[in-house]
Amino acid sequence: MSRSIPIGYALANLPRYTSYPTAPHFGPLGEAEYRGWLAGIRPEDPLSLYLHIPFCRSLCWYCGCHTSVTRSAERIARYGAALEAEAALLAAALPAHAGVASIHLGGGTPSTLGAAGLRRLFAALRARFGIRPDAELAIELDPRVIDEEIVAALAESGVTRASFGVQDIDPAVQRRIGRLQARETVEQGVAWLRAAGIRGINLDIMYGLPGQGAAQVAATARFAAELGASRVAVFGYAHVPWMKPHQNAIHTDDLPGALERLQQAETAEHVLVEAGFQAIGLDHFARPEDPMAVAARAGTLHRNFQGYTTDAAPVLLGLGASSIGGIEAAGYAQNEPNERRWVAAVEAGELPIRRGRAVTAEDRLRRRCIERVMCDFALDLAALPAALVAEVRPALAPLEADGLIDLTPDLLRVTAEGRRHVRHVAACFDAYLGTGAGRHSAAV
User: Fold this and answer.
1) Annotated binding-site positions for [4Fe-4S] cluster
2) In angstroms, what CA-CA distances link 97 with 38, 43, 315, 371?
3) Of 245, 251, 336, which Cα lies nearest the Cα of 59?
């Protein structure tokens, strides 16, 4: 355990740095400006698509995603049709490009579209965008909301990777987060995916949940390893009831403290590394042969709104209510978050952009620094402008004194003890931190 690191680092609230500038610093962005950004895409630029399906069958109390509960087939079908219409609008606005390298369906629970809806959606994407033969098609799944027909539809649509939300396998913890999910349900879902030929299987687990201790986290990590997952993500529960009021169902007094959270995170890492996984960045683990582990070793790992990724495309297009995309050279764009207003805009033939942030040359420089720190735990200072290095050195000095980093004139390296606190290192390059109204989750 990294007990020598002052506990104050674990107590701090910091961004997750899935973008820079981060979402609290977005402002109004109009359709015309976004269309201008799209027009600047180059013929050699590959694309990535993120599609947000916000529906769930029931509400998980820990959830921090943009979701709503519905069982209305009409509402879901209208949303699916609007996704197809938005894809058509986006495709028509694009200049020549190098095709789609990655598609990610997230939520919510994308399988609420049903087998037929998923087939239609993937067919529409293929018709509107050129999907490259080596593209990764990924989907987030709730193992309680799939069946063999849905899995068959995914396989037929070319899906190559699926992520199951596991969180914790202890029924007592599950009751306290509003998500009862038998381990047999997860096992059956994994078996269906493998039988259908979908071999890329990710499992997401959590620490910092109410009633959770290191023993429960260890048991869940062992379960993920024994199921033979390709990747395991270990996320710390972010208690943000000021943003997600349903989290008030979880009482703050029932949550583990900062030191307990740190112990739980380190316990999960120990179990997974012992089981043969390679630690990736802050909270991901992958089999050594998995493309994510290969990218981490090669220094080509990236980070975007889905977390750590092998996706190197400079253009990420967001579809669906609240989805966020980013064009590397231009900025970030977020869709209308309200489902009804998003549907109405799309049905009126509008690209439903509402918020975003144009990026400057300095933003792009700092973004590269933050991404390399988060992905590589190292940064070549000699390759940076001297003025930037001089600016951040005073902020880095306390981290060096506390053992989080090693510094030389030419290199910043995050120490083994400091890796759990890498967001503090990244924050040294954030020119906007503390200047906005946003509040962030715990750093560990």
Assistant:
1) 56, 60, 63
2) 10, 4, 10, 25
3) 245
Domains of the chain in sequence order: 19-358 (3.80.30.20), 361-427 (1.10.10.920)
Write out the binding residues: 50, 56, 60, 62-64, 107-109, 140, 167, 179, 204, 238, 324
How much is the pTM?
Answer: 0.93
pLDDT tens digits, one per residue of 388-425: 999 999 999 999 999 999 999 999 999 999 999 999 99
Known binding site for S-adenosyl-L-methionine: residues? Answer: 50, 62-64, 107-109, 140, 167, 179, 204, 238, 324
| pLDDT at residue number 439 | 46
- Cα–Cα distance between 196 and 134 in angstroms, integer? 19
CA distances to 103, 341, 428 from 26, rounded to whole Å, are 24, 19, 20
Respond yes or no on whether the N-terminal peptide bond of residue 99 is cis (omega within 30° of 0).
no
pLDDT surpassing 60 at residue 322: yes
Angle between helices 386-401 and 361-376 (to 10 degrees): 30
- E-strand ranges in 210-323 read 231-236, 278-280, 284-286, 302-304, 307-309, 315-319
